Amino acid sequence: MKPYDQNFISQEIQEYNGLINECTCGDYGILKENSLGHKLQGYMYENEQEEYNLPIIQLLKDKVSLMRLSPKEIQSSYEIIKFAKGKVGIVGLGLGYVVQKIAKKSQVEQVIVYEISEEVISLYKQNFGENNKIKIIQGDAFKANSECFDFFYVDIYEYKLDLKVVEDYKKLIKLHDIKEYSFWGIEHFLLSCKYEDIVWVYVPEVWIEMSKHLYTALDDSGYIKYYKQLEENKVKEVLLAFKEILNDEI
């Protein structure tokens, strides 16, 4: 239940509001806005009656919100943070919440972050400074030098599911030696798959475990009654594209 517990979410948001300040760099900026009166969508569910009275941190580009440290962001990051271990690779720095949480884990030795925007890196460093456990590489993640990773996470999809997650998986698995790979929204994707479709796909064990844990938490919290499945045709398209790659890896 923890990722869907309102007290846990409030504590996380309040803690990082104390760590992240409003600032700007070029076309990018960090802004805080109170959530009162705004409907905050959860991860895998929609509850129109739910309201939070919290200062929500946003990362903006040209005054357009790219991401927010909202309940959805915290809920969707929970299993990623939990499963991260050893040497971790991350594509997409964002506000730095996931990077910081993962780096704090004793089971994590090093975090290598690939971020294409120099401005986003500057904003992050203004708030968090340097950390011996974290190495940030500015540039195209798909043209980086090859590395070995125990856990790898891609967070560049702006809360959307499309074939890019498959294309990126194929490129990054080829570029790096990765033991466990994940991407934003992986649990929602798998839980939206039809049984008769997914049963023929060799799904990585870590994906199944993450999805099972989060489904149980959603059920225990009572939010399961507000569960929102992803669009059926899009899910099937992505699953079939993954099937061609994953089944070849057996």
From TrEMBL:
How is this protein named in the record?
Answer: Methyltransferase type 11 domain-containing protein
Q: Which GO terms describe its molecular function?
A: S-adenosylmethionine-dependent methyltransferase activity
- All copies of the Methyltransferase type domain together span 91-153
* Signal peptide interval: none
Q: What is the lineage of its organism?
A: Bacteria, Bacillati, Bacillota, Clostridia, Eubacteriales
